[in-house]
Structures are given as C-alpha cells and as structure tokens.
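Changelog note: in this version the structure field was regenerated for every chain. One regenerated record is shown below for reference.
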Amino acid sequence: MRIFSPFIIALRALQRNKMRTLLTMLGMIIGVGAVIAMVSIGTGAKTQVEAQIASLGQNVVLVFSGSVTRSGIHTGWGSAGTLTIDDARAIAREITGVKAVSPEVRMGSQISAGNQNWFTSVLGESEQYLEIRQWPLAAGTMFTENDVRGANKVAIIGMTIVNQIFNDEDPIGQIVRIRNVPFVIVGVLSPKGLSLMGQDQDDVIIIPYTSAMKRIQGTTTLRSILVQADSLKNLPVVQQQLTELLRQRHKIGPGKDDDFTVRTQQEIAETATATSRIMTALLGSIASVSLIVGGIGIMNIMLVSVTERTREIGIRMAVGAKSRDVMLQFLIEAVTLSIIGGIIGIGVGVLASKIISSQMGWPVLTPLTSIVLAFSFSALVGVFFGFYPARKASMLDPIEALRYE
C-alpha cells in the first residue's frame, strides 16, 4: 500500500484543480495522439508498398538489358536488347540455387475480340512465370513448356481484359487478336489490383515469349529475364553467380561496364520503401514537438503548484518529511499527469488513424512499438519537465515556507 500511496496523494492533489489538470494533460494527449496517428499513416503506406513489392514474387532476381555506357551515352535499363534466350537457358542450367527462369518480352498493343478492342500490355513469358510471380489463375490453365517450344498461339488474360472485352461471357477457348495474330485464351488470371507505380496489373495478356518474339515482334533479343532463387539465403549468391556468368557470356573484360543490370527484389523493396521510412520519421518527429510543448506546460503548472502549496510543503517538512520525500511527491504528480495524458492520447491516436483510414481511404497500421515508444516518451517528458519544479519544492526552507502567505 505504501508503494501506491504517493500516487494516491498525487491524484488527490491534481483533483483540486480539475480544469487546470485537464488543460495541462491536453498537451500530452494531443502530442501522443499525433505521434501515433502520424506513425500509423507512415507505417501503413510502407506496408502497402512492401505488399506490392511482394506481389512480384518471392526471392526474385530481375535482369535488365542495357545499363551500359557507349560513346559517352548511358543507355539505362531495358534500352538495348543485350540479353538472349541462350542467356536465360544458361542461367537455369549453370547457376545453383535457381528455382525458375522466365525470359521476358514486353510491349503495348491493341487487341481485339469480336467487335470489341482494347489497348493493353502484352507480356511474353515462360511457363514458369506464374510460379515466379505467385499469381494464381481464376479459371483455365497456364500454357505449357510445349507451347513455349512450339511458339503456339495461346494466351492468359487479366481480369480487366475480361471485363472490357468479354463482359459476362466466359473467355476460355475464345479468340483474341494481337496485331491481327489470333491467340486462343486458355486461362484467366486472378485479380491483383494496382502495382507500385499505380498501373493496373490486371490489364495484361500473357503469351509464350517465343510467340511474342517470332509472331509479334520479330526480334531475337530480350529486354529482361526473371529469375527465382530457391531461398532467401541463396539470393545474394544467385545474384553474384548470375552477374559473373553474364559477364563471361557477353565477353566483358575486367574494368568494363556491364551491358546488363541485375537487381534483387530486396534492393527494389528497400528503394521503394526508403521514401515511406523518411516520411514516417519526419511525421513522427514533427508530432513529437507537441510532446515537448506538453512537457513545458507540465513544468509551468508544477511551478505554479509549488508556489501555491508552499505552506503545505513547510508543514510536511516540519512534521518530519525529508527533502527527497517532497521532491518525489511533486515528481510523481508530474509523471502522473504525463501517464494519464499518454493513455488517453493512445486512444485518441488510434481512433484518429481509423477515422483517417475510413474517410480518406489511406492504409494505416498502428504498430505496438509506436504505442510503447509514445507512452514511454510521455512518461520521460513528465520526469524531465517535472524534475525542476520538484527540486525547487524540496529546496524550500521549512521556516520560510511556514511563514509564506
């Protein structure tokens, strides 16, 4: 009971001026609530970006053609067709830890079916593409390795194309024309929504890469290759071996620039989430200023309280209270103000983040760590800003305090 008695006394002291106590706590409530709401918004945005990156697949290494300097010109990713089908086959054959490989051809094209037409993205991929992307089918089947070898005219379509061209009809088995070349639809992709860049991932048609190269584009080179490692642990090893293999195959000497670019899914995720992390830290820092302002308010009120209760302090010291007892009592009052304000602020912050999410459609996520940190920081603010008034109270001379009117 003696452990809690200082807190009980502190609560009684704070109840003497309820309005003043409430207004003092308001600074802490706003501060803690603002920190939790801002961090929830930032964390929600970061989580959404990570989820969209994860939709690319698991343990994926992306190989892009280009990124080479020639005659002083840096061509960049995908700007030159420096990758070949043989490169993709060599990656699958010679690199340990590779689970799946998909040579990739990308283009935009007008497609038509019956009297309907639509401009969409056309991807030329291998039969392992959906396994790499972890993209299930809503209906039908994926084209096979034999379809890839024979450059057969088969296609998988996204849900947006189903809605735009086929309406309520079953598209399986129907014909869709890509640049007047007929392809039979054998499967429909499950919906994925928007990508990291805001593009509709369901607005796509996937065909064998051999069909895209021979029947549509008439090219012999690739713009990119998707490679899936068998585990996250092997991802750096696969990246290193892949780079060494392609440098050897492309006869790139020591000190020369690569004519390709290799990026892992982790590197892309770190780049994509860097902005979200910075914004979360910035928002949290700005909101933390409110906690400092609330702490200053606590110091002000505690100084006023020391002045008002000078005679009370003198009486306590006269009956045997020591300086440390007086200091502890006022410090506990300051911490109690901060803790109560912090608890209410947590509720306000969580509620505010939910309202923002429902009204504005922003993704929010309130991590437990942000609640613990905000609450702990509010308690520390109480200790820090309550120490000076408490020390001032403990330094009063008992005789002078008793004479104070």
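Spot check on this record: Residues 265-308 form the longest helix (44 residues). Residues 68-75 have pLDDT under 50 and may be disordered.
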